[in-house]
Design a protein that fits this description.
Length: 199
């Protein structure tokens, strides 16, 4: 039985072109993201974990169940971190928080691209709220900020499957394209507004 479902992609597979090609999105969503959902369902079949939520599994499990549950969560967050055609620069509450934590939007961009480019191997680069302040972090493999009490605001996938067909080994160009043309600041603002420490 299918306990965990593959969330619908929030846009068409070709919608992120030209920055991220249809073939990349097709493989990434159907085979990679979909593969993690399928594997997770196999791993929890007949076990108490089958009744847990994805967030419960992320907080309480280790090993293969954690890896697959976290990758399902991370990919769902990644797709929503992008908006076809991009988005206006953040202003209002999020704009002020960016200025307060990084100095400027350009400083945030530089830190995000640098951190993601220099992260060794597979993983994720995140804009998070850490104790109510914005910061950039990276996590290896399937790991994610929820494990450390940080609230994810926006993320980019650093696994090669996210960019290799479009950018080969040039991760920096992929991250620049992500940041400049695809980053969904409306989604980021919605996440920032939900940060409990700010209330
Ligand atoms: Fe991925």
């Amino acid at each position: 039985m299918e306990h965990f479902k593959l969330a619908p992609l929030p846009y068409d597979e070709a919608a992120l072109e030209p920055q991220i090609g249809r073939e990349t999105v097709n493989l990434h969503y159907e085979k990679h993201h979909g593969g993690y959902v399928k594997k997770l369902n196999e791993l929890v079949e007949g076990k108490p974990e089958a009744k847990a939520t994805l967030e419960d599994l992320i907080r309480s499990s280790e090993g293969a169940i954690f890896d697959n549950a976290a990758q399902v969560w991370n990919h769902d967050f990644y797709w929503r971190s992008m908006q076809p055609g991009g988005c206006a620069e953040p202003n209002g509450a999020l704009g002020e928080a960016i200025a307060g934590s990084f100095g400027s939007f350009d400083d945030l961009r530089r830190e995000f691209v640098e951190a993601g480019t220099h992260h060794f191997g597979s993983g994720w680069v995140w804009l998070v709220s850490h104790r109510g302040r914005l910061r950039i972090t990276t996590t290896p493999d399937a790991d994610l900020p929820l494990r450390y009490g940080d609230t994810p605001i926006l993320c980019a996938d650093l696994w090669e499957h996210a960019y290799y067909l479009d950018y080969h080994n040039e991760r920096e160009r992929y991250l620049e394209a992500f940041f400049d043309h695809l980053a969904n600041w409306d989604f980021a603002l919605a996440n920032w507004n939900k940060v409990p420490a700010r209330r």
